[in-house]
Amino acid sequence: MDETENNTSIDSVEVGPSSPRVVATPRIPIPVMMRETPLSTKRERQALTPRFRRPAPRMIKTVPQTRSIWSVRKDTTPQLVTPHGPQELESPHYDRANTQTFFEQVFQIDEIIGRGSFGEVFAARCREDSRLYAVKVSIAPMRQHSMSKYREAESHMIIPPHKNLVKFYRAWEETDRLYIQTELCEQSLQQYCSVQHALPENEIWNIFVDLLEAVHHLHSNDMIHDDIKPENIFLTKHKICKLGDFGLVINLKNPNDVKSAEEGDSKYLAPEVLNGKPTFASDIFSLGVTILEAATDLDVPSNGDAWHQIRNGQIPERFFVGISSDLRVLIEQMINKEPMKRPTSDALRKHLSIRTRLDSRRRYILSMDMRDGFCNLMSSILVWCMAFLSVVFHPVTRFHEAINNRRSELCAQFVNNQQHTPIQTPETSKVYSESLTGVALRQASQISPFDFSDDENPPHSQRRLFTGPVSRRLNFDDEMEDEEQATCSSSNSSAIETAEDSLSSPKKPVIPVTRQFSSRGTPKSARRLIPSYRNRSGSRDPTHHAGAGDSMNSSILDQERTDRYLRMRLAEQQLDWNDHSNMIDEAPPPMSCPPRIRRSLRDMPRMPVLNFNLLDEPIKKGKEKPVVEPAELRQRPMRNGLKSLRSRMASFQGSSGDEN
Ligand SMILES: Nc1ncnc2c1ncn2[C@@H]1O[C@H](COP(=O)(O)OP(=O)(O)OP(=O)(O)O)[C@@H](O)[C@H]1O
Ligand SMILES: [Mg+2]
Fold this sequence. Notes:
By secondary structure, the chain is of the alpha+beta class.
């Protein structure tokens, strides 16, 4: 085709000594199909074709089931593949009795990271050392007695390890499938290039140098890789290139390998291999195409004219824009049609551009290895330390926990045992209980702490008054039971007033009594216990019709209660507060008691013993005087401690004496 007729084509622009005329044409994008040459970059192809997005890899928990046309022997025991033949495979995590495969038992499978013609590749964490590996599993069960059965595994074992080759760990066979465990890399060069497209030149040189080292290592060991391509080249997290997939590797020392040599990927295939056997030079050709693809983002053709165009050295100039002449020359030499004209790996290493980079690259890889080794060492030391510390401090933490629990148990026990309220007046109960619970009395002057009539769940400190041994100890006699207990517990002294109940019986003398259970100020829990309250609330209930017997009983009960109350008040009045011989001698609180409670107990005056005999004395009818509740007591402000109670009692005594 005449170039002058198509001067709008980019590919028609020829620059260089071979072209006499340089035609500077405007760079109008032309669809690939209309171009003179079918070669294009991968980015251009992506722009023309609908974008295909590979679906996210599926999380696989087990090795997928596959079918085979081959009838296979189900040998379930895993066999380690070694250069000296199969050997028994052992692992502390493998249980023969378990129906799962060795792979499923010893590895925790993360995801599928790749699929090839041979098999599927899984990223899996080995339970033996908790590290991640790539495990390649053959898709189809392999034919029995197949000569090439273990080729990839054998190649891995034969090739001496090299920093630019994917590291091999082990291979085993189970249920006629081959498993190859190798080092896990971050991604393949093909994946990296498909994202980055044309890579910067320094990265290209690094890749070139790494791959050249790998190829040189293989060639110097009489091995031909035969499948060099970006899909079989892997990048680590430090961007170090590693050559992998030794499925087609030819060991020149093994005549069987040479005989059964297969062609690699046609995209990267040297032209002479179509009619012959792979050679070192064919590897160099594949490496040259790989570097060309990485450097120019060329969409490498697998066949057709474009395939021949590359092999004839007719790569349009535009692909080399921005690439140094050194790199371009080396690439062109490597993809030379004539295998004899291609440089050997050794000759390439001696090239000035590569030789200068080899040393720095070696140092970089060494430093990264050392860094990784150091990080691994530190992390394993850290894990050991953490394990050690957790073992050492486990008993200490348990001990501390146990002591704390015991201490709180003892405190609770002590508080319960120390509750003593021999004088069962609302005032004393309140003072004592509040001193225990730490509720300040000044708060009580504003809001009665016991007025939670509408609250079924009073605060914890208040709830204590109605539970436990306090109320149980208040039984002066069996009959009093709930009523008296509740009277003593319920310390709403503002409830002292003339009893409405006593007015219900006109025959009885009008005696001022304590209204024991007012609907306001008496906790519901206490109200429910008390028959008088129940009767009262029952009479309010329109559905409740109390009979004559009921009212008689209740008036007798009220009378009794009033009598008892008056006797109690008399007993209180006759207390000798200065008689210390009559005091209860209590042991000091133990040290396990919280200091706050200990302090309040220490500051409290000792409680006098109540003379209960007074209660048993027969009541002298007519002699008893109605107790008039002093206004001071009724409107009593809630003040601190027994001191105020004592002074009030004294004044009350005095006032009653005056009356006498
Ligand atoms: N060690 C590894 N680290 C990370 N990814 C890997 C590793 N080995 C394989 N892969 C991924 O799995 C894909 C297929 O792996 P591999 O090339 O070994 O399989 P294959 O069956 O030989 O395929 P093909 O014959 O097409 O080359 C690779 O392209 C790569 O994406
Ligand atoms: Mg492969």
